[in-house]
Design goal:
Elements lengths: L10 E4 L2 E8 L17 E5 L10 H4 L4 E9 L8 E6 L5 E6 L2 E7 L5 E4 L9 E9 L10 E5 L5 E5 L13 E6 L4 E11 L2 E10 L3 E7 L5 E6 L2 E6 L13 E9 L2 E10 L4 E4 L2 E4 L2 E2 L2 E5 L13 H14 L3 E3 L7 H10 L2 E5 L11 H4 L12 H22 L5 E8 L8 H15 L6 E5 L17 E4 L12 H18 L5 E5 L18 H16 L4 E7 L29 H12 L7
Parallel strand pairs: 23-24, 23-30, 24-25, 25-26, 26-27, 27-28, 28-29, 29-30
Antiparallel strand pairs: 1-12, 2-3, 2-4, 4-9, 5-8, 5-12, 6-7, 6-9, 10-11, 13-14, 14-17, 15-16, 15-18, 18-19, 20-21, 21-22
Helix pairs in contact: 2-3, 5-6, 7-8
């Protein structure tokens, strides 16, 4: 899970670009030996979602098996190294073949996997990599849903989540050469005592002596250590602060005498995270979260890696006065977290456990208090949980050293109104605590029917994250005054429980068509979005234990088509092409006025 870097001992070869691509609706590719090479293909961009490049609906909506292929050369000078192929993501599952030889398989579409290919490659000659993929949804997948077969025999995705099921090789694919005896992983835990910081480290590596150096941004040594575990003492430490980050470079060397066997370097920030009472503390100081639920999504690329969109999104978040976001509803690319480290943004890092409410319109049905018994299903308690734990392990292993990551979100809007969810939740939350060396807070986003009198699982969360749509899905338009009363009633019920935990509104919002004006307001107009938000802010400000607001959504995004969606979800504060709606100026005025320690 180490992010690929070039060092004196490590090499990377990017094999992104235009690949060959082919649909396999009958699932006959394996039996017809497609894994040895594809015929009758179309060109396809990697990395990107395949969907939005097509102009016919069948291809854009395609559900089932599909294949990618490209050629590459491995230089002979890599022969003495471990040569691997790394996929930063393959949505939702993949089997990898090199020169017709099966290499590896992976379940889950939003986390990286790496496989050694030494035994399959031909040195200094052309090699062929073929990837057999599938994007079907089920109760066992993360995210969850179903796959329907239409009367004409065509498969169709029916997600239990409100975003489009973009698929493909959506993040970079690279060849990596590392030493046979190399550095495998490392973990950091930080402590602060006055002006001195202490960073406990633990390293997994091959045979040899380990040398650890922390360098400041001028390249000077700030601290040194040796061995597979130890503590770095950093005097006059410069801390990673909210919107004011400082990053050191951690350099790890595996040596045999004076010879450097392997070297790995990465930017790291020194900071502590703690929940104390109703406060969220960064470096011992309270912070009020201001920001967004987002999607890793943009036009043309779909959910594909798009560095231009990453840059634009962070510039807009800085402009509006935000300090945080949640990676709704799946792990984002590592490059987004690296940017958050560099910009000082706080991130609630979410595993792709979304759709754990059995409905393709859960945003409506949960608001009507419907229940579906998702966790009563035997496959959920077995296979789904197994996949959930595997994805959680990969997520924490990948992101555990990022300074920006302040909490793990273990599910989004699961159904918690049945006691069958309790043992599932306990196992998942205990497992997250076991995996994370820094013991960050754990949370999940509570759906509308997870009210204080109905939810069986809120006690597992260190931070209570509420997704609430009073005034939109619940009593919208002229009924907004009643919606406010219902909202206040729920918040009073939470207050009476005296949980002594911070609450964050991890979702709230109203669909708004940009440029639609109506006086007096109607739902979907920019005027109604402002009225709706004013009501939300009034409620947020009335409760001292509310310590954050992350509006849904940063930008308009694509969803499955339907009568509730006009070419996607329009709750964005920015349009899909990243231009502000009127509400953006309302947030900018509010967030720039709120101090970091608001309500502490």
């Amino acid at each position: 899970m180490l992010y690929p870097v070039v060092s004196r001992t490590r090499r990377i070869f990017d094999i992104c670009g235009i690949w060959k691509f082919k649909f396999d609706p009958e699932g006959k590719g394996l039996s017809e030996n497609w894994h040895s090479g594809l015929k009758d293909t179309v060109p396809m961009v990697v990395p990107a979602s395949f969907n939005d490049f097509f102009t016919d609906k069948y291809s854009r909506e395609y559900t089932g098996d599909f294949w990618y292929e490209t050629d590459f050369i491995v230089p002979e000078e890599w022969k003495g190294k471990n040569v691997a192929v790394r996929f930063d993501a393959a949505t939702h599952r993949a089997e990898v073949y090199v020169n017709g030889v099966f290499i590896t398989k992976h379940e889950g579409g939003f986390l990286p996997f790496t496989a050694n290919i030494n035994d399959a490659v031909k040195w200094n000659e052309k090699n062929k990599i073929v990837v057999h993929m599938n994007n079907e949804l089920s109760y066992e997948t993360l995210p969850a849903g179903t796959t329907k077969v239409l009367k004409n025999g065509v498969k169709m995705s029916k997600p239990f989540f409100d975003f489009f099921n973009y698929s493909g090789l959506q993040r970079p694919v690279r060849l990596i050469a590392t030493p046979k005896e190399g550095i495998c992983s490392y973990s950091l835990v930080h402590r602060i005592d006055g002006s001195t910081a202490f960073t406990d480290y633990e390293i997994k590596a091959g045979s040899g002596d380990l040398e650890v150096t922390l360098l400041d941004d001028d390249g000077n040594t700030a601290a040194e250590g040796s061995g597979a575990s130890g503590t770095l003492e950093i005097k006059n430490a410069k801390l990673w602060e909210v919107l004011n980050p400082y990053l050191y470079t951690l350099r790890i060397r595996l040596k045999s005498g004076a010879e450097i066997i392997d070297e790995y370097s990465e930017a790291v920030g020194i900071r502590t995270i703690e929940v104390k009472g109703t406060d969220i503390l960064v470096n011992g100081k309270p912070v009020y979260l201001k920001g967004f639920g987002k999607h890793e999504e943009s036009a043309l690329y779909g959910r594909g890696y798009n560095p231009a969109a990453i840059k634009r999104d962070f510039e807009l978040m800085k402009w509006i006065g935000a300090n945080s976001f949640r990676t709704a509803h799946y792990p984002y690319s590592e490059e987004i977290l690296q940017m958050a480290d560099r910009e000082g943004f706080l991130v609630i890092d979410e595993v792709a456990a979304v759709g754990f409410f059995e409905s393709i319109m859960n945003f409506l049905e949960a608001s009507s208090k419907k229940t579906t018994g998702f966790f009563t299903r035997s496959e959920v308690q077995t296979k789904t949980k197994e996949n959930h734990k595997a994805a959680l392990k990969e997520l924490i292993e990948r992101d555990k050293n990022h300074a920006c990551v302040i909490a793990w979100s273990l599910m989004n809007e699961p159904e918690t109104t049945n006691e069958a969810a309790v043992p599932y939740f306990k196992e998942i939350f205990d497992y997250a605590a076991e995996l994370d060396p820094q013991k960050r807070p754990r949370t999940f986003a509570l759906i509308m029917n997870s009210t204080p009198d109905k939810c069986f699982c809120y006690q597992f969360a260190d931070i209570i994250c509420l997704n609430r749509y009073y005034g939109w899905y619940h009593m919208g338009g002229y009924e907004i005054t009643d919606a406010k009363e219902d909202f206040i009633a729920e918040m009073n019920a939470w207050k009476e429980k005296n949980l002594n935990k911070p609450f964050i509104f991890s979702e709230f919002g109203a669909d708004t068509m940009p440029g639609l004006h109506k006086l007096p307001s109607v739902m979907w107009s920019e005027e109604y979005q402002r009225e709706y938000l004013k009501m939300q802010f009034d409620v947020f400000d009335a409760y001292d234990f509310v310590k954050g607001e992350q509006v849904w959504n940063f930008a308009d995004f694509q969803t499955t088509e339907g009568i509730m969606r006009v070419d996607g979800n329009k709750k964005g504060i920015f349009t899909r092409d990243r231009q502000p709606k009127e509400a953006a100026y309302m947030f900018k005025e509010r967030w720039e006025a709120l101090p970091r320690e608001y309500k502490s």
